Amino acid sequence: MVAGVALIPNWSAGAAVTDDPTVDASTKATFQKLADAVFTDRTQALVDGSTSAHTHHTAGFSGSVRLSGGQTREQSSALGKLRARKTLLAKLGEKYSAGDTKVTLDATEVHGRSAKVAVTETTTLTYKKGTVPAKGPKTTGFQAHHELTFKAGRHGDWQLTGIHDTDDGYLAVNQVEPPATSSTPTTPPTGGTSPSPTATPTGTPSSPSDDGPPDAPRAATSYPAPANPKQLTGGAYDYKAMVAYAQKYWNHYNPDYPDYNGAGAGGDCTNFVSQVLKAGGWKHVPGYTDDYTKWFGNADIQSDSFVGVNEFSWFALSSKRVTPLANVYQADLGDVIQMDFDRDGSKDHSMVVTYRDGSGVPYVTYHSTNTYNRSVASLVASYPTAYFYAYRT
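^ that's the sequence the OP posted. Answer follows.
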């Protein structure tokens, strides 16, 4: 199942949506084109050599469908932030030679002079030759979902007045607002007990131990990192199988597991990471779903540790299936990286390493804003104040 299909919002349910008579097929197509221009501009702001003159696809819109004054200012601010991010990425050795963004319209709902438009953005960035080793990944990309709000003026002209990102745990390189911070699905797995609420540092999860869950030490983000080589062959786990699974299902979800992506679902990032590790040889530890010392997941039931960011960390450390890494740049194939966006002590996002280049930079793949081969350098540049955690599997 392609994630974009599942993420059409609830208000679009049903084959037909009653439209205001002024919103015909041509207007809907223009809504889509304007959305494409907005996100294309944001992508191009990250491309090496691009200038403000090259990032004004939205300037061609006027009259019947256009940006509002407030949204024009928002777009200008976003482009400025992204150009600053491009400069920081370049200092970290990462540049993009080209970017390609395509936006498709998923659904439209109209109430009088207000319209909500759900779109899917698919973006690919090409790494600039010489900024990653010859055998490194040639591209990185992601699939993201947005809800756009349009308001009609007195003369029936539609203005884009708002953009809302609808992925839980949103994390894309051309995104400028703080991401959502959901870490545990709010919908319980079929046949299981409801996952516990997102844990806080003072929470008391279910466990047979009186000592509470283990703390994960934060990982440094300085580059380069001290050497910490990983044995990739001959051990208990098949890291190539982990990478192959991640590459297959990064944006085409495995129907053998529930899909927790989408507004209100809590995010699918840890669910995906657990599937990757399972594909590489991690074995189930059956028990109660809310016992963080247990770990299991299938189509019918999943433990909190299989799907929850913090619970996964507690299981992985307490079971000694992982060891903490001192620096995120030490991570290698099959290792797991987590982030705490707002530094409140509760982790928000999980990712798995699917490539490591010759200069020592790991690349991660993840769900909830489905992304493949994004460099750790890009994450550090995009979220310089976040806390990072890295685990050797």
